[in-house]
Amino acid sequence: MGWTGKILRIDLSKGTVKTEPLNMDWADKYLGQRGLASKYLVEEIDPKTDPLGPDNKVIFATGPLTGTCASTGGRYSVITKGPLTGAIACSNSGGYFGAEMKFAGWDMVIVEGAAAKPVYLTIFDDDVQIRDAGDIWGKSVWETDKWIKAAHQDPMIHVATIGVSGENAVLYSCVVNDLHRAAGRSGVGAVLGSKNLKAVAIRGTGGVSVKDPKEFLKATKAGKKVLKDNAVTGQGLPTYGTQVLMNVINEAGAMPTRNGRDVQFESAGDISAEAMAEPRRSDGHPNLLTNQACFGCTIACGRISKIDETHYTVQNKPEYWHASGGLEYEAAWALGSATGVKDLEALTYANFICNEQGLDPISFGATVGAAMELYEDGVITSETTGGIELKFGSAEALTRCVELTGKAEGFGKELGMGSARLTAKYGRPELSMTVKSQEFPAYDPRGIQGMGLTYATSNRGACHLRSYTVASEILGIPEKTDPLATEGKAGLVKAFQDATAAVDSSGLCVFTTFAWTLEDIAPQVDAACKGDWSVEKMLEVGERIWNMERIFNNKAGFTAKDDRLPERLMKDAAKTGPAKGLVATVDKMLPEYYDLRGWTSEGVPTNETLERLAV
């Protein structure tokens, strides 16, 4: 009920396909998707294994509400050991691929080993095949999607694939499904590339059963009303998408700008949601064409944009290339504010390349920002970059860099290492704005103190989606807290982390939590799944997941020393805005956080904590 109860296990080294029952004892403790798949991963691989070696595994996982009529019930995750960080990685995506996986009858697909030559998988209900991918190796995400649908004469197939960047081990390459939805962070695409796995194509003809259909419909109907009536999920996100945050965060003085040198971007308005909606002078059309929803979603925060065909970036591009997934806030920040580029069309073009070749725009843009600082400090030159004048604010430099990185050519190979490795190579590691080697997103911890602790303690490296305290500190959800204060933030971060882990494991989108609490979500899970799924149990599941991930990272070699922000944020005070004169003060919050977690002063879960949670 909720779960299909079946797992598909594919060994690419042996060329075998097996079916096995889902471990329902684990499902009761970890729910699904992020939690349950991570449990399988930590039980089956050595934490010290090479992320790009054949002993690593990659798991495609759905939640019990994936494929149901619950609003946003279309999520799936890719779980593995991440090559960018060396930590546990779980990257979440929307679109339609996850629901199709459930319709085909599978809770999870576990891929192990490595193929001797490029392959792709077809999963058509119970018919599972490992197929030759020689004709699509070296092709983009968009070309691969088109080729697979044509080859199998079925436009309803849903494809998750890597681009050329994943094939060439760009360490922040993605797995992209439905052309522009992505399991985007930590380099999960590079893991597929290391296994010679180009794509997974799924077509399902079944459905998803639930424990109590009447109660489930009642609970999901009530949940949809809450989303519709909420200002963020009912108005802000449908109208402006996540880009609604651009001017809000900039005014709060928490917009990391020019590789974190500044906390406000003077040209934020030029790349904002409002700018995307304005008509363009060349053809009279706005950058934004429409919004778009994932499977079952009543929010529809996605953006579809059309790039100005007269802009220099689009010359000689085929017609189908001109419209794709538009700028989300994180991408607009990374490609814009982090690099100082204010050309909206250039940002849209760079984002299209990220969609087409499977690049995480957060890590890519932040890495370019770090490279620009290396260039302006004279550490690297145009000779290093292959002739690119890598100055802050240069749209030409940004677009050339994304082209090269997408195909892992020239200086793009170095950018593809991520900013931690790039800056270390040139002797300036302090210029990397990362935690655990993953670039942090679009919120400066000097202006939003809770996000500093969020980044520092995130199990997958710097991440906003593991504990979005911005909701409380800036938007006042579920209650307003002072973004410049540290008091009470340890408890706030822990609460967000535990709740988010549960939501990520359900098959629902975390954006629902702008309106929903677990009081809204637990009844939906309880009506769908066998067992008693109260709010208390959901929180316990979330806490269990967080500690399980932490133990894996501890065994992989991470310690309390890795729960730190870049030196710049701890020493260089904000120059402008509400946070002027302040630095990030994670050190004040960490001891309380460890204590609330039931961890030692070295950041290790105690035996008592592990016994209480039955990790």
Name a few traits of the molecule.
39% helix; six-stranded mixed sheet; 25 helices; globular; Aldehyde Ferredoxin Oxidoreductase Protein, subunit A, domain 3; 3 domains; 615 residues; Aldehyde Ferredoxin Oxidoreductase,  A, domain 1; alpha+beta
Could you explain how this protein is built, in words?
There is one protein chain. With 615 residues, this protein is of the alpha+beta class. It folds into 3 domains: 6-203, 4-Layer Sandwich (Aldehyde Ferredoxin Oxidoreductase,  A, domain 1), CATH 3.60.9.10; 238-439, Aldehyde Ferredoxin Oxidoreductase Protein, subunit A, domain 2, CATH 1.10.569.10; 449-514 and 534-613, Orthogonal Bundle (Aldehyde Ferredoxin Oxidoreductase Protein, subunit A, domain 3). Helices cover 39% and strands 13% of the residues. It has a 6-stranded mixed beta sheet with strand order 2-1-6-3-4-5, sandwiched between helices. A 6-stranded mixed beta sheet has the order 8-7-12-9-10-11. A hairpin with a 2-residue loop joins strand 7 and strand 8. Helix 1 crosses helix 2 (33-44), helix 2 runs parallel beside helix 22 and helix 7 runs antiparallel to helix 21. The model has no long low-confidence stretch (mean pLDDT 96).
Helix proportion range: 25-40%
What is the domain total for the residues? 3
CATH third-level topology of the largest domain: Aldehyde Ferredoxin Oxidoreductase Protein, subunit A, domain 2
Mean pLDDT: 96
Low-confidence stretches: none
Instruction: Just name the CATH architecture of the largest domain.
Output: Orthogonal Bundle
- Tell me about the largest β-sheet: 6 strands, mixed
Rg value = 22 Å
- Major sheet: arrangement of strands: 2-1-6-3-4-5
Tally the helices: 25
Count the E strands. Answer: 17
CATH class of the largest domain: Mainly Alpha
Classified in CATH, the superfamily of the largest domain is Aldehyde Ferredoxin Oxidoreductase Protein, subunit A, domain 2
The geometry reads as globular
Give the helix/strand class: alpha+beta
Strand content: 5-15%
Cα distance, first to last residue? 24 Å
